[in-house]
Write a structure and sequence with these properties.
The structure holds 2 protein chains of 2 kinds.
Chain A: E1 3-6, E2 10-14, E3 19-21, E4 23-26, E5 31-38, E6 44-50, E7 56-58, E8 64-68, E9 73-78, E10 87-95, H1 100-103, E11 107-108, E12 112-117
Parallel strand pairs in A: 2-12
Antiparallel strand pairs in A: 1-4, 3-9, 5-6, 5-10, 7-8, 8-9, 10-11, 10-12
Chain B: E1 4-7, E2 10-13, E3 19-25, E4 31-37, E5 43-51, E6 54-57, E7 64-66, E8 76-78, E9 87-97, E10 100-105, E11 109-113
Classes of the chains: A mainly beta, B mainly beta.
């Protein structure tokens, strides 16, 4: 089984400051890693994903994440946030599988609410 | 494309009532799923379908039924609503892209059971 822990439930940050959202995961098998963003009153949308290769992954809206296998972490960062980045962010994993049922099962962390202040 | 659509956006039910949450997608995705979102718990998988006529249980299936008669539609039925089912419900469909499945989420249905 897999589990995902997001270490901060809320992160207040001032506009134009950097932000880091922490995510740790546990799995007995290899996984893919994802970050999703949920803007107020909307569904989730994919920010970025890590499958293999370079451990630094760039996503949309200036976000990037770094995979650290030894620490089983996948932290999300942005060097300078905007008011529009106020949202809830979810880290998720799925097992590596070409079988639809297995490959689509996402295990989510509890979410981190980012509030960007002017 | 409209993507993944869900109706209604909001619903209030009394304990014991039944209802169906609707979900539709126009992207011809074979895989569809239902999640519930509760504070601090992220999203948890209720039921999923790998194609028309095939459904299976996820992590938290009790109290919910699904069916998949067409590729486009995947309704979620609450048989006898309970306060513990107060939650936000998201439907998703997925596409295999760049080496993994990517899920597309609908805007959600906020359900309150009193």
């Amino acid at each position: 089984a897999q589990s995902v822990t997001q270490l901060d439930s809320q992160v207040p940050v001032f506009e134009e400051a950097p932000v880091e959202l922490r995510c740790n995961y546990s799995s007995s098998v290899s996984v893919y890693l994802f970050w999703y963003v949920q803007y107020p009153n909307q569904g989730l949308q994919l920010l970025l994903k890590y499958l293999s290769g370079s451990t630094l992954v760039k996503g949309i809206n200036g976000f990037e994440a770094e995979f650290n296998k030894s620490q089983t972490s996948f932290h999300l960062r942005k060097p300078s946030v905007h008011i529009s980045d106020t949202a809830e962010y979810f880290c998720a994993v799925s097992v590596i599988s070409g079988i639809k049922a297995a490959g689509n099962k996402l295990t989510f962390g509890g979410g981190t609410r980012v509030l960007v202040k002017p | 494309n409209a993507g993944v659509t869900q109706t209604p956006k909001f619903q209030v039910l009394k304990t014991g009532q039944s209802m169906t949450l609707q979900c539709a997608q126009d992207m011809n995705h074979e895989y569809m799923s239902w999640y519930r979102q509760d504070p601090g718990m992220g999203l948890r998988l209720i039921h999923y379908s790998v194609g028309a006529g095939i459904t299976d249980q996820g992590e938290v299936p009790n109290g919910y039924n699904v069916s998949r008669s067409t590729t486009e539609d995947f309704p979620l039925r609450l048989l006898s609503a309970a306060p513990s089912q107060t939650s936000v419900y998201f439907c998703a469909s997925s596409l295999y892209r760049d080496g993994s499945y990517e899920q597309y989420f609908g805007p959600g249905t906020r359900l309150t059971v009193t």
